[in-house]
Amino acid sequence: MYVTQPPSFEIKGKEDMVYKLKNAIYGLKHAPRAWNKRINSFLLQLKFQRCIVEHGVYVRVQHERSNLLLVCLYVDDLLITSSSSNEIEEFKKVMKAKFEMRNLGKLSYFLGMEFTITSKGMVLHQKKYGSEEKVVDVTFFKQIVGSLRYLCNSRLDICYGVGLISRFMDGPRKQRMVDAKRIMRYLQGTLEFGVLFPNKMQQEKSMLIGYSNSYWFEDKVDRRSTTRYVFKFLNAHIS
């Protein structure tokens, strides 16, 4: 993987040179795959077997000790359980020696699920997953969204964001109002932006051009894939 030099940080006399990455940069699209391959190969070296049904689950059986160790992997979070507490501690030491890791203690919260230890056993519930955010003024929120939607006629750059907050017109919560205000702050700093209609339109350029891209599972609300697009006619943005 190669990257260009950041603007204003080019090396004088070597502006055309690029950086070769030794490791995957966190946040890049290929980084999760690189990390998954790294942790998967390491766990296999430790004699774990990867579950063929659920690829995030690894199992290791120490036959001489009759100990079972299970690891649930979600990106860079690991849940560890075993029939032996010593087995867990040994595994933690090996992982800390290889990776920069923190021990967060006993399981209490994971992926929207809470675990509470009681005298009768462990209780799994999702109380925090339920929306407890403060409800904002519905009329005021609709007025803001309506104004933003009208602005989309000349500000195509906010269409996607306005489309997202428009999904929450019924019973909007505080976080959705924060999102709307964030869009307005962006508009405040870019008041001069708009749609350019060039005054010199060459006949050979009179064609419809479209660009699009896709993000897989980027939507943090429903985890669906999303897409963005822009169409230009005579070099002017029309959609």
Please give the structural blueprint:
Blueprint: E1 2-4, E2 18-20, H1 31-45, E3 49-50, E4 57-62, E5 67-74, E6 77-82, H2 85-98, E7 109-110, E8 113-118, E9 121-125, H3 138-151, H4 159-165, H5 174-189, E10 208-215, E11 226-233, E12 236-237
Antiparallel strand pairs: 1-2, 3-4, 4-5, 5-6, 7-8, 8-9, 10-11, 11-12
Structure characteristics:
alpha+beta; four-stranded antiparallel beta sheet; three-stranded antiparallel beta sheet; 3 domains
Summary of the model, kept short:
By secondary structure, the protein is an alpha+beta fold.
Question: What does this molecule look like?
Answer:
This protein is 28% helix and 25% strand. With 239 residues, it is α+β, with helices and mostly antiparallel strands. It has three domains: 19-125, no CATH class; 131-194, no CATH class; 195-239, no CATH class. The strands form four sheets. A four-stranded antiparallel β-sheet has the order 3-4-5-6, covered by helices on one side. β3 and β4 (57-62) form a beta hairpin. The chain starts with a strand and ends with a strand. The relative contact order is 0.05. The mean pLDDT is 85.
In spatial order, strands of the major sheet run: 3-4-5-6
Alpha-carbon distance between the two ends: 34 Å
The SSE order reads EEHEEEEHEEEHHHEEE
In helices, the fraction of residues equals 25-40%
Assign an overall shape. extended
Q: Any idea what the radius of gyration is? A: 26 Å
Structural class of the secondary elements?
alpha+beta
Number of strands: 12
Give the helix tally: 5
